[in-house]
């Protein structure tokens, strides 16, 4: 064991060599220079909307936990499903070619809609790469909606204990399924809002869960996307946003995106990011899925 | 960041534990990244950055370095970038026990180093220490609180013995009415210097306030802005 060897060596000498001490310290650590080239070569998961990708710095980042908050009906689940599909875009077509884990706490996952979004994704790929699928080694048979559906590992959970259990189970699952590149939890605070009498315990549990998810995203190089409820008040030109379970939770993510209505148009606002400025952009949810605002496909309108 | 340096009385002090507290996305991580970049750039020594939320951004560090005034020593920009970035070491820490382990290894490393100026760690950053303590603090079990006090003692001892500056971030929780720094009353006495920052969403201007300082008066405010990306 390297640790024991090093400690034995240190005890046995008056002056330990710098190399052992340095090696001991650097175990598990990296310097920023190495991380820079890694970061620059990272692929992002497209959201389907070029504008939305723009404010996110290319798309959803792997190795990071991104929280997406929004009022009910704004389309968080739509975006979640879109990401579960888009992560599977083959490498040949600029995607990650990975699989998705979708943890559904509210039962929002509608298979028919997933199929529709998969079809929308495929038709867009065909449009941008018209001659490519003839030459592509992966073959045309992979680009079927059914295979996109098969690439989503779906977990339906009905209580907070099941949620804690599934997150604990994820490590084992990810060890066995190394092609997973995104984990989506829809929605992360739903089962913690009622039934929990001891609020301090709830805070501890949620903080513990978020650290576990951080660790998984880093070790397995995947994106973790947490969908959360939020209420917004638009007063005097600025927002009053209240994320569900607010202060106890809000530090536990790398990035935060807030989805909101501006009149009848959907907008997204990047609220937290270590390297990107705050910014907002409109986007749309169409029959094909999440796209840029001003898309030609028929849009889903605000129902309320 | 000049305003923060002024509030701190010249900068992050060696041998002392400085805490930055603030609400979500108020700029705590940015202060950490700026500190890491500046200390590494000025040849003061190596920086150990412990990250609990995968927020350490090498490209942001590179950007901050880009904006620095040209140093007195003539050094090609890309060589300087590599040198500086190589002296910032980042490690991800996701639980309190891993933190104790890293601090232990750091102690061993600092104890047996022959003075090798530019490689010796002189700044330790933990962003954020409160995330690691949040899962164990509160409740009837007092073990969490005692671990927090242990962490504080170890950090201060490391700072004092090896002349390190230690910078930690803390988040805020809902108090009775106004939000207050997390980690409670027992933690308040731990850092030598405590600063609180907040960001006005509309104008993107941040405000820093001194909550506690060993030498300077408290309650002073300074305003500043981070460089855009």
From TrEMBL, chain A:
Domain of life: Eukaryota
Subcellular location per the Swiss-Prot or TrEMBL entry: Nucleus
Record domain RecA family profile: where: 41-230
Keyword tags: ATP-binding, DNA damage, DNA recombination, DNA repair, DNA-binding, Nucleotide-binding, Nucleus
GO molecular function: ATP binding; ATP-dependent DNA damage sensor activity; crossover junction DNA endonuclease activity; four-way junction DNA binding
SUPFAM superfamilies linked: P-loop containing nucleoside triphosphate hydrolases
Family stated for the protein in its record: Belongs to the RecA family. RAD51 subfamily.
Known function: Involved in the homologous recombination repair (HRR) pathway of double-stranded DNA breaks arising during DNA replication or induced by DNA-damaging agents.
Name this polypeptide is given: DNA repair protein RAD51 homolog 3
Organism of derivation: Aegilops tauschii subsp. strangulata
From TrEMBL, chain B:
Principal subcellular localization: nucleus
Biological processes, Gene Ontology terms: DNA strand invasion; double-strand break repair via homologous recombination; reciprocal meiotic recombination; telomere maintenance
Transmembrane feature ranges: none
MF term (GO), any: single-stranded DNA binding
Highest taxon of the lineage: Eukaryota
UniProt keyword DNA repair present: yes
GO cellular component, one term: microtubule organizing center
Ranges where the RecA family profile domain occurs: 1-172
Keyword Isomerase attributed: no
Keywords recorded for this protein, A-Z: ATP-binding, DNA damage, DNA recombination, DNA repair, DNA-binding, Nucleotide-binding, Nucleus
Compartment(s) of residence: Nucleus
Function: Involved in the homologous recombination repair (HRR) pathway of double-stranded DNA breaks arising during DNA replication or induced by DNA-damaging agents.
Family per similarity comment: Belongs to the RecA family. RAD51 subfamily.
Record-given protein name: RecA family profile 1 domain-containing protein
Upper classification of the organism: Eukaryota, Viridiplantae, Streptophyta, Embryophyta, Tracheophyta
